[in-house]
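Project channel, design review

CF: Before we commit to the Amycolatopsis halotolerans constructs, I'd like one complete example in the thread so the newer folks can see what an input/output pair looks like. Taking Acyltransferase family protein.
RD: sounds good, go ahead.
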Amino acid sequence: MITLAEPDSAASAESSPAPPKKTRIVFIDIGRGLGALLVFYSHIAHPWIIAKNDKAPYVDFIEALTSDPMHMSKQGIGQIAVPFFFLVSGFVVTPIALRQGTGRFALNRFIRVYAPMLFVVALTVFLLLVNLHPPSTGQAQTLNPLTVFTNTTLANYLIFPQVVLVPVAWTMIVEVIFYLLLMAVLPLLRRWVWLGIAVELTFIFVVMMSRSQFGPSWSLFAVNVSYLPAMLIGQIVWATTKKQIPLWTGALYGGCAWSLYVLADVIDVGRVDSSYNLALAFAVACFLMGMFAEDRLKQRKIWTMLSERSYSIYLLHMLVTFVLLQLLRPAVPLPIALLIVIPAVFGVVELSYRFVERPSHSLARRLSHRPKPPPPAPETPEPPPPPPVETPGEKTQLVDDSEVTLEIPRIPAEPTPPRRPAPRPRPVPNGRMPRNGAPPPNEPPRADQPRTMTPRANGGAHRARPAAESGVDRTAEPPARRPMPPRRRPSAPPELRYQPDQENQGQRGDQDDLPRHRDSFRHTPR
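CF: and here is what came back for Acyltransferase family protein:
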C-alpha cells in the first residue's frame, strides 16, 4: 500500500501549481490596511460616540479591551496606526529616494501627496459653503484664498495662528518634512549611510532643543519634527537589514532615535497625553514581527486593496462620517446609522481612489520615470572601396581591412610548401619495372611513398595497406598515441621448462613448412 501511494503523491506534487510569486511586501499591506481601519474606528468611537454621550455598549466593550489598558482613552486604539505609518515611510521611502534621485523623487512625492489633498480640501470647502459642518479641531475655519492655499499645501500647520480645514492632515506635514530632510541628506546616504542618519538625528535634536527660541511658527515646526524619530527608526531598520550599516551601528542609532522620541515628552512639545511612547513601542513590535514573518505571509487581494486605498480612507473617513451622522442622528438609531455611514464612506473612498489617487500615481510614475536610452541603430555596411587602378609596370597589393582587429593580432599565413615530384620507379634485378611505382621486393618502402599492392612473378601478392592522404594538415595537432603494452610470449608451465625430450619434439608437420614472415601464406615445397 505504501509503495502504491508514493507515486500518486509524487504525481500530485508535480501536477500541483507552484505558489504565485509575491509582488508586494505583504506585512506592510496588512499593517497599512489594519491601521486605516483602526483610525476609522477610533474617530467614530471617540470624537462622536463617546464625546456626544451616544450609548453604544459594543463600543464600550471594545474600548475596555483595547484603549483603556493601553492608556489611550483620549484618542483610542487607532493611535498605534500613526507611528506604524511613520515606520513604513522610513522603511519604504528611503530606498525609493536613493533609486529615483532628488528631482524625480520630489516630483513623484509632490503629485502623490498633494493631488488627493487638493480633492479633500475642495470637498471640505464645498461642505462649508452649503452649511454642512465638517469635523474641526475647535479652531476657526475661516474660508479665504489664503487659508485654502495653506491647507492644500499643508503650510497651515507651520503658520501661527492655525486655520485647519482637514484635522487628520497633520500627519501629512510630518511626511513632507521627512521627504525634504531625506532629499537634503541624499548625497550622504548614497556614499555614507551612517553619516546621513547621524546628520538626520543631529538635525532633529537641534530643532527640538531650540523650539522656543525663534517664535511660535518655529515652535510649530519643532512639534512636527518631534515625530521624525519614528520614521528614522524605520530607516535604520532598512539600513541594518540591507547591510548598509553594521548591526551595532543600527542598534546605537535606534536607541538614539527612541531617546529623541521620548525627549519630546520630557520637554513637553504639546502632545495630548502620555501614550505616544507606548504606541510607538507597540508599533515597532508589530513592524518587526511582520518583517520576520514575511516569508510565511501570502499575498491576498483584500490586503492589497486596503493598502492601496489607505491614504484615501485616512483623508476622507472623518469628513464623510461626521457629515452623514449629523444628518441621520438622532432621527435614525445609531446601529442603523452606522450601517448606512460605513458603506457610504467606502463608496466615496472608492471614487476618490479611482478618479483621483490612482490617476495621480500613474501621472507621478510617468513624469518621474527615467527614459530608457534608445537602442543603437543597426550598422549599415559601408560600400566596398573601388578597386585601385594599376599602372603599367606596377603591381598593386590588396589588403582586406575587415580581418584586421586591434584586440587579436593577425597571424601571417604559413607559406604552402612546393609539391615534390613523384620519384621515378627503379628497375628490379630481373629487368622489369614494378607497377604503380612500388619499390623492389627486397627494399623496404620509403616514408614519403604510400604502400601499394606489389605483384609477384608467381602470381602471389602482398596484402596492401591503405594509402595515406596526399594532403597534410600542418596546422592540426597530431593525435595523441597511447603507448601499447609490450607483447609477452606465453611461456610453458614451470614443470615443462628446460626439458628437451618432449613428446612431440621430433615430429614435423605441414605447418612447420610455413614461412616465418608475413609476406606470403603459400606453402613451400619440401
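RD: helpful, thanks. Confidence is low (pLDDT under 50) at residues 1-14, 390-413, 498-522.
CF: The longest helix spans residues 334-368.
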